[in-house]
Amino acid sequence: MKVKLVFLIFLIIAGCSSRGAYEGIQTSNRFECFTLPPSQYDECMNNTNKSYDEYERERKEIPETQKRIDVGGSSKKSMKKYKK
User: Fold this and answer.
1) Is the dihedral of CA 41, 11, 54, 57 positive or negative?
2) How far apart are the first and last CA of the chain?
3) Which of left, alpha, beta for 64 (phi over 0: left; psi -120 to 50: alpha)?
């Protein structure tokens, strides 16, 4: 619950821009990493260290036919692989 609250506050402060939303999701994912066992923590944190500029550059390199819209829940989907 605290993670969701922090994420919501971060989005409000960031003004819900694309960059702000991305950084909010990354922050939320980092908080989720703290709940993982040490054996999974480093890999999880490495997956949340990509800057918005790197993300945006990679996103633009993807051909239009390979893009898909993932509305909501994308951070939870990426974290599911760690929770076993």
Assistant:
1) positive
2) 20
3) alpha
Regarding pTM above 0.70, the answer is no
Residue 25: the pLDDT is 87
Q: Which of 36, 10, 2 is nearest to 47 (CA)?
A: 36
- Within a 13 Å sphere around the CA of 43, how many CA atoms are in the beta-carbon half? 10
Distance CA(28)–CA(10), nearest Å, equals 9
23-71 pLDDT, tens digit per residue, is 888 988 999 999 999 999 999 998 888 888 888 888 888 776 665 654 4
Residue with tokens 């040490």: 38
Cα-Cα-Cα-Cα dihedral of 16, 13, 44, 37, to 10°?
-130
